[in-house]
Amino acid sequence: MLTVGVVPFLVGKPLVQGLDQNPDIQLVEDSPANLGAKLREGLVDTALASSVFALGNAPLPFWTEGPLVACDGPARSVLILMRPGLSSPAAIQTLHLDPTSRTGRELALIVLAENYGSRPVLQETPSGENPFDAGTDAIQIIGDAALLSRRKIDQGWTILDLGEEWKKLTQLPFVFAGWLGRPGFDPSGIGDIFNDALEQGLAARHHLAKVAANDLNVPEGEIQRYLFDDMKFRLPPGKAVEALRTFDQLRPVPVT
Description:
This protein is α/β, with parallel strands linked by helices. The protein is built from 8 helices and 11 strands. Helix 2 crosses helix 4 and helix 6 (205-216) crosses helix 7.
């Protein structure tokens, strides 16, 4: 039995279509941060996990040429939200980090430092608590919660799209997640399974958008733009490696 980690976000659904029907696969749903830890501990064989776990001194195997979660411009679900009255990202002195995120939080620090010269004090509250109650100047947020948080614009909050900011900085796509393996397990070895899942998922995007729009109470057109235009589920050969190398070079001291 193969144990496969998946994320509880809309963006992951096109990559895992049909896996729940495979009798040889046991799915384990968790946050990107927790899935990376489970891979390191050998609790799952492979997972759609944060790309940052493929970097650093003890990188996990990452199928860079396979299906992945990336953007080449706006991401719409990996954001920094600035409180009303804050004049610029350069003015951010305190930043709340999303406890479910690992890659997104490091991207946030790169963008703030490189694009705006800001190096804020970092805070985090336990998963499940409302980050908007944290009292920080800004909030880093990912996933479906980030899609929903766009409503904060009407309350005076300002959105900084981290995918868009990365593109301005590097002129490269950004790789948020992909198929990683536990130590010694190469996910490309079961690549046919993941390629088939993605093909099913791409074909199902209209249905996924309709369901998500109803579940999240977000206009269906916004979800379709997100799944069809903003998110990239494959990149041209070599682009993921180049993007990850640049990400690794720009990373500050890793945030655990």
